[in-house]
Sequence to fold (324 residues):
Amino acid sequence: MLFRVAVPLLALCALASPVTAADYPDHAIRLIVPFAPGGGTDVLARIVADNLHKKWGQPVIVENQAGASGAIGTRAAMKAPADGYTLLMASTGALMAVSANADGDGPFDVNKYLSPIVIGAAPPYLLVANPNLPVKTTAELIRYAKEKPEGLTYGSSGIGAASHLSGLLFASATGIKLLHIPYKGTEPAVTDLLGGRIDIMFAPGPVVQQFVQSGQLKALGVTDTQRSKFYPDVPTVADAVPGYESVGWFGLLAPPKTPPEIVKKINEVIVAAMQTQEFRDHLATLGAEPKPQTPEEFGRYINADVAKWTKLVKDNNVQLPGGK
Fold:
């Protein structure tokens, strides 16, 4: 008798799931950032958290779980309940760390591991050089590097980070030799660049812009396909290296199989927030402009991005953190 009653109850629970999504959220949300506080991913996470809190009145608690180039925090989000109460602010490097440990031999599909919600920003990087390096343009840098059989050094915020992959792509596209020096974050890498201990770096624009303006660093190129309105006097790297493009995206995701109704609800809040001047002003601090997408568009964007970098990594025999 109990069994007969249980079956209809299960069916009713299944039918009631949209009501749960409609009532979402009714308590605090945890937003995992897989990097240390203060970086671009963390900054954007706090902007998103503030907008979600303003919309729904529920606390959105930013939780930094740094380590392994973003793999530790990302895996924590992957294992969390798929109820919309754990979110992840991920980045290029974090998803590369996940893809390095993905199952199977086929193309990486982010939808197997996470639920994409919305891209927050995709800022370009600045190719910057120590002022003692005798070059003024990207083309001059390439010629100079080819005359140095021992190569040049470049720093990054860690193996697999966008700043690392940008340099790897640059070396691969130009045929020059670059020795990668990974650091535990962007700031120590910039410090060594300023001190002349490394030659160049692909760095977040807002981090190095003050040093470019003061003449402590030289900006040779921007890594997007078009000039950035934030650095209008800096030509693109693609002017000297046709087809070159490297942007470090930040985006909001949820654990795999999070109900589509909840994913859509969060997406709509953030896309609406992107239209406000306040949100745009916040993004400007990252050197970025809003690029709203649907969850489906964001998923396709991630898969194409990971495919691009995975090929580059494999071609250059790079072992990413968290890889097999």
In short: The chain has two domains: 28-122+248-315, 125-239.
